[in-house]
Specification:
The protein is α/β, with parallel strands linked by helices. It has one domain (3-121): Rossmann fold (3-Layer(aba) Sandwich). It is 49% helix and 24% strand. It is built from six helices and seven strands, in the order E-H-E-H-E-E-E-H-E-H-H-E-H. The strands form two sheets. It has a five-stranded parallel beta sheet with strand order 2-1-3-6-7, sandwiched between helices. It has a two-stranded antiparallel sheet with strand order 4-5. Helix 2 (34-43) runs parallel beside helix 3 (60-70). It is globular and about 30 Å long. The two termini are 15 Å apart. The mean pLDDT is 88.
């Protein structure tokens, strides 16, 4: 069973993803910010991280790099509903350049998330 970390500053998003992943029988930890996420990552090895891109007081690029330093094989899915940069694809492309394996738009399509997770976890 894969161990997954979900990072998002919105409690309802964390709850929805958490419930979905638990139904799919994954072990899940939740973090509301980058500081909490890195503390969890220092104590736990994750197979997959799902992280929001735009959050207050949070640099997603630092978190992606930090996670990859701790666990080079960790798979990372960046998600965002982030406005103008999201619609042009620039922010999502930047996350991939910094080490995210995939980027998905919000609102999150849970079936697409499952498909991407299955693909990444089988590699």
């Amino acid at each position: 069973m894969a161990k997954i970390l979900v990072i998002d500053d919105h409690a309802h998003i964390r709850t929805i993803i958490n419930e979905f992943l638990k139904i799919e029988r994954y072990e899940v930890d939740l973090a509301e910010d980058g500081k909490t996420a890195m503390k969890l990552a220092e104590k736990n090895a994750y197979d997959l991280v799902i992280t929001d891109i735009i959050m207050p007081d949070y640099d997603v690029f630092d978190i992606i790099r930090g996670l990859k330093r701790l666990y080079p094989a960790v798979k990372i899915i960046a998600i965002t509903g982030g406005g103008l940069l999201h619609s042009s694809g620039e922010l999502m492309d930047a996350c991939k350049l910094f080490g995210a394996d995939r980027a998905l738009p919000k609102p999150l399509d849970l079936l697409k998330l499952k498909e991407v997770m299955n693909d990444l976890l089988q590699k």
